[in-house]
Amino acid sequence: MGMATESQFHVLAVDDSLIDRKLIEKLLKTSSYQVTTVDSGTKALEFLGLHEDDQSNPNTAPVFPNNHQEVEVNLIITDYCMPGMTGYDLLRKIKESSSLRNIPVVIMSSENVPSRINRCLEEGAEEFFLKPVRLSDVNRLKPHIMKTKLKDQKQENTDDDDDESGNPVLQSQEEHPQRQQQQQQHHHQHSNSNKRKALEEGLSPERTRPRYNGVTTVV
Amino acid sequence: MDGVVQLQKQLVDYSASLFDEGILDEQFNQLQQLQDESNPDFVVEVVSLFFEDSERLLNELGKALEQQTVDFKKVDAHVHQLKGSSSSIGAQRVQKLCIGFRNYCEELNTEGCLKCLQQVKHEYSLVKTKLETLFKLERQLIAAGGSIPT
Asked: What is the reported pTM?
């Protein structure tokens, strides 16, 4: 498609604190990510091309591109406690959106509340970082991005007739429509069951253990 | 050359004292490690934001606690912000005080909150002075032709 270069992944960081935005931006840039920061969940959704009514209205003058995925985002990292739309609300909206649900989401919070962490993970967040976020945390992002990239590539390879949201197309122009559909469904189920499994196996200790000063887990 | 060595030692000792006294914690180190040639003023920039933000919040806290009917949710929100930003730059003592402060908010205890505010203001003032001194020592060292030891 020729949008983002292969070498740089684009992370969208959401935080209402200016200091934390500056910090996360630096952490991400140091790790060679392209970064966009916004100060609210609402702005994040706008940036991602998702509007309140999920329709593109030609009469409004959007600040950000109206066509979704024109700006490719490979990962979203968001603060939990924000006025208005919380990080959890944002996470839900993303996972409910057919066009955005495949983007990995990571939640950050200054508070270590197990029920909060669990709720986010169950809603589909990949990880939960305790603030202040460190370089060692940012180093854990790559696998989540790669996992999604690989999945996207596989889906692209097996079927070119998908509509952009990745839903299986009922009528196919390929030679073997049935086989294709089966592959897609298998894929969809496969990725879902993998996720469920990760949750059932128990949250990895690194995620929920509170970080102590001076001790960082090295992956 | 001697002058540079002396300045360097002064800086190292001063920096160490801030950590020893618990005024700064590991997070400040993290900030320093993030600073590089592409962004040589990173720490000063972030800390400056912290100063601005904190002064605003302390101001707001004073006003909020003066009200006839104190809006503890608002007070708590401000303290939460202050706790977050002090944690992000490694201002350990300020951060710790904010924890107690939030407890008083939960208890709807105006007296307790006012006391905490005084303490926070004091610690904030201290960390601000110390950091400004630290930055000054760094500038002096660089001006003398030295480099900041990592």
From this structure: 0.77
- Does the beta-carbon distance from B49 to A135 stay under 8 Å? no
Paired with B91 in beta bridges are B24
CB contact under 8 A, B53 and A135: no
Q: Which residues of A78-108 are buried (b: 16+ CB within 10 A; e: fewer)?
A: bbbbbeebbbbbbbbbbeebebbebbbbbbb
Residue of chain B whose Cα is closest to the Cα of A136 = B30
On whether the CB atoms of residues A71 and A47 are closer than 8 A, the answer is yes
Q: Cβ(B72)–Cβ(B108) under 8 Å? A: yes
Please give chain B's pLDDT, 150 residues, in tens: 588 999 999 999 999 999 999 999 999 999 999 999 889 999 999 999 999 999 999 999 999 999 999 999 999 999 999 999 999 999 999 999 999 999 999 999 999 999 999 999 999 999 999 999 999 999 999 999 998 887
Q: Which parts of B35-144 fold into alpha helices (H)?
A: 42-66, 72-89, 92-106, 110-143
Contacts of A213 in chain B (CB under 8 A): 25-26
Are B39 and A26 within 8 A, CB to CB?
yes
Angle between helices B42-66 and B72-89 (to 10 degrees): 160
Contact of A27 with chain B, judged by CB distance below 8 Å, is answered with: yes
Q: Flag whether residue A22 sits within 8 Å of chain B, measured between CB atoms.
A: yes
Question: Do B46 and A17 lie within an 8 Å CB cutoff?
Answer: no
Interface contact flag, A20 B45, Cβ < 8 Å: no
Which residue of chain B is at minimal alpha-carbon distance from A25?
Answer: B34
- Alpha helices of chain A — where are they, by DSSP H? 18-30, 41-48, 87-96, 114-122, 135-138, 142-158, 177-200, 205-208
> Which two tokens mark B56?
């605003």
